[in-house]
Specification:
alpha/beta, 8 strands, Ubiquitin-like (UB roll), 6-stranded mixed beta sheet
Length: 101
């Protein structure tokens, strides 16, 4: 498991699981990101490694072609990403939506 550490302080460790082709951008399937508990989901996702962050966050929001699970529940069934506080989250799963034709 790869750890992304910040300076010492009051941080919460957030597990981010990356599935499918996104793994190439995060260099691993599971990241642990240190975040402040009062941060919202979007702010927490800004702590991802740069290449992955640029793919996940588009124009300040989550890319439309990603499925995001927050503790096993799809994001669209919850509040907006800006209203979800990381203090209530244990794991985020990022899944690219792949379409065929």
């Amino acid at each position: 498991m790869r750890n992304m550490h910040l300076t010492e302080g009051l941080f919460k460790r957030l597990v981010v699981r990356i599935l499918g082709p996104l793994r190439e951008l995060g260099e691993t399937e599971i990241l642990e990101v240190d975040v402040e508990p009062e941060m919202n989901l979007i702010e927490a996702l800004r702590r991802l490694p740069e290449r992955l962050r640029e793919r996940v966050l588009i124009h300040g929001g989550i890319a439309a072609d990603l499925l995001v699970l927050v503790d096993g529940v799809e994001l669209s069934c919850l509040e907006s990403a800006e209203d979800i506080r990381v203090e209530d989250i244990g794991e985020i799963v990022l899944i690219p939506i792949i379409h065929g034709g």
